[in-house]
Structure formats: C-alpha cells, structure tokens
Amino acid sequence: MQTRAQARRGVTIYLGCVLIMSAALEGWIIAHGGLGGPSGWLVLPLMYVPLVSSVIARLVGREGFRDVSFRWGGRPGTRASLAAWLLPVGVGFLAYGVAWGTGLAPFAAPASGALAGIGNPVLRFLALIPVALTVGTLMSCLSAFGEEVGWRGYLVPRLVEAEVPAPFLASSLIWCAWHIPLILWAGYAVGPYPALSALAFVASITPVGLLMARWRMASGSVWPCVIAHGSWNVVIQSVFDPFATGPRSALWIGESGLLTVAALWAVFSMVRNASWAGTAPVGS
C-alpha cells in the first residue's frame, strides 16, 4: 500500500513514460500510412507501453512488484472473469442485432476469412463465436496483457491510493485518450467522420473501463481485465464486424459505433450494482 504522496509520484512517472513512448510510436505509425501502412505492426509494441511504463515507475519509485495482482482472485475473480469473457458477445448481439434488423448495417458473410467453407452465413457466424471465445481470446490476450498490466494492474490502484477524484472514471478517460490519435489520423475504429468516431469511442469505452476497474479492485486480480480486453478485441473485431456491411456501417457499429455506445451503457447500467461487479470509490 502506497502513501498518497508515493502514489501520486508513481502516477506522474507512469503517465510521463506512457506519454513519451506512445507519442513516439503513434507518431511513427501516423507518419507512415497509419495502421494499414508498413509501420502498422508497431501497434503490438505500442500495446506493451503501459506494461513497460509500470515497470519503470515501480523501479524508480522502489515500489516493488508484490501488488502486480497476478493472483486469480478466488470466487470474485472467477465471476468477474466469466462476465468479462462473455461481455462482447452480449454487447455484440445487442448492438449488431439492432443494426442487422433495421438495415443500418445489413448482415452478410465476408467472402473470405475463417470457416469460409461453411456456406450458410448464419451457421458460419455462429460457429465463429466459440472459436473466437477460446483460441481467439487466448491469442488476443497476449497483446491485451501489455495494456492491462499497466492500465488496470498499476494505474487504477495508484489513482485510488493517490486519492484522485473519481479514480475509475479518470483511468477510463486516460485509456480512451491514449487511443484518440490512432482514431483521428491512423484509421483505427474510424467511421465516415473521424471526430465523431473519436467522441463515440470515448463514450463506448468509458463504461468498459469503469467495469474493468471495478473487477480489478473487487477481485484483486488483473486477469478479468486481460480476459475482457482480449475477448473484446477478437469477438467484436473478428466476428461481429466482418458480418456487418454497408457504406455507413462504421457509424453505427464497431468500437466507435453509436449503437455500440448505447449497448455498452445499457449493459453497464444493468450490471454495475451486481455483487461480482465490485464497488467504486466515491465519485467514480
């Protein structure tokens, strides 16, 4: 447990390191064609910037590594991990289901990709979900691990210890801001209007960050957050997104889609008071 002064020093060092390293990597990606350009692969080391920054903050502040939170967290950890694992499936069916049903983003199977040999598009879509939840999530967690050890494993508890007002909300907004340059200038989760996509991204990811912070503190474990992040990336991006078509589909679905925003806040409102969702500090 850190004193308020120690925690604030750690937060300052951590965020300073994140800013410097992220600016360098994101700037290089943007200057060389965005995520679709030859430097798009740098997004993988970028996702490990939070972890590296947390290690630097711990070493400089002589904080040690005992609270990295790699323990499972007992029953609260199991409940939180299960909810985290299935979160994108529930949000996906809610947001994309509305988009498909209303014609805002018609349902159609991609011409290529995984399980392309299944002719029926509905069966192919349903078959992809368990694949994404198992093998896909396991692989996706390898990259999500770098972010979560930093954002939720280090930043969230330090903000609480530093007595920052609304620490869970603060951590969520910092996490959102870290993505904004990639949305505005690198083609990440962007629709026809980049500025609107950036605002919608903040609105959609904020409730996810709030839930993940609660899971982290309630379970004392970073694993529910790693699982949530890994599952979200592969289920939404690799299963739901490819089956939503139309020139304006990105306005409605995807990580910066308006329907995704509504679905995430609806899910957050339903589960925020559940016992396994944890409690939030005053003001969060």
Short account of what is shown:
This protein is mainly alpha-helical and 284 residues long.
Number of domain units: 1
Number of helices: 10
Beta percentage is under 5%
Q: What form results from the Cα inertia axes?
A: globular
Helix content: 55-70%
Distance between the termini: 20 Å
Extract low-pLDDT stretches.
none
Q: Can you walk through the features of this model?
A:
With 284 residues, the chain is an all-alpha fold. The chain has one domain. Helix content is 69%, strand content 0%. It has ten helices and no strands. α3 (49-60) packs parallel to α5 (121-161) and α5 crosses α7.
Tags for this entry?
single chain; 284 residues; mainly alpha; 10 helices; 69% helix; globular
Protein topology:
Blueprint: H1 4-31, H2 43-46, H3 49-60, H4 74-102, H5 121-161, H6 167-185, H7 194-219, H8 223-240, H9 249-252, H10 258-271
